[in-house]
Amino acid sequence: MPQNQTERGEAARAMYRLLAGGWVAQIIHTAAELGLADHFGEEARDVASLASATATHPPSLWRLLRALAAIGVVHETQDSRYTLTSLGATLRTDQPGSMRALARFLLGDEMARTWRALPHTVRTGDIGFRHAFGTDSRSYLATHPEFATLFNTAMLSGTQGIDAEIGAHYPFGNFGWIVDVGGGIGTLLLPILDRHPEMRGTIFELPHVVVQARERVAAAGLAARCDAVEGDALITIPAGADAYLMKFVLHNRTDDEAVAILHNCHHAMPAHAKLLIIERVLPERIDPNDALARENLLADINRMVTGGGRERSEAEYRALLARAGLRLTHIIRTPGPSVIIEAEPG
Fold first, then answer.
1. Overall pTM surpassing 0.70 (yes/no)
2. Annotated catalytic residue 208
3. Which of 29, 75, 251, 267 is catalytic?
4. Dist CA 328 CA 62 (whole Å)
């Protein structure tokens, strides 16, 4: 479509702002790596004291702080001192729902190398992570404990708000026994069990995750009502529960893998049981003004490049469930990016 010079200039500046978003993310990542937010208190801090606390070069830290002020992470006072904003406080390690680990993970070396392989993924369909590291992400996590610990902490910080929304938008008290398939270290299941003292739960996970899950269960004082069981959902799933949870499991899988997992769920479920799938749902049509759709579509690209999975539309979830002999009964919206897809034996 023909454009005049003014329109071309505005479009170019808008594209520049999009491209510079990578710089913004890297600036936040640097603050997270330095643990900068942890060194702020009630009083404003000067550059020299912050540089001493973080073992950094004062002139360089000053420039970083000014950039952080420009994007709203810190506030610069009239006398060039700095305080932490509410946005910046999310990077404090001791903050409930801290985003520091997520910032370190998303912009760390492994994810940076993976995303640099996106052109290769689009050209070939190959998984970017596998192209970059010569193995799949699950195997890499199993053999790199430091990265696995950062990954688990990042996923915890990135999903705590989502977990609270899920817990508030579904009547989990109707169930006596819940199996959380791919439940990680229990970030979703344990708060549900804590709210419902008559309920018991099972975290079903891969061996390298189960060790941390058991520690988390014990620390929560729920070992009498919750166990962590090793296994692979592609092979079998514990049978006989009243409800089966799967949060952010299917989006990491190809369609055929997702159907295999759903089929195993169906085989494990009694006739009265419910399957609750927590995932993002993509729109059928793209609206560039829909911020949530934009977030979910970006997440879809992350799935493609990191693990070969995908985010899906409601119609695609219905189709996957039907292939596994399950029937979608309800979709419960939450305030956040995820929905609760309820299904039962069809």
1. yes
2. no
3. 251
4. 55
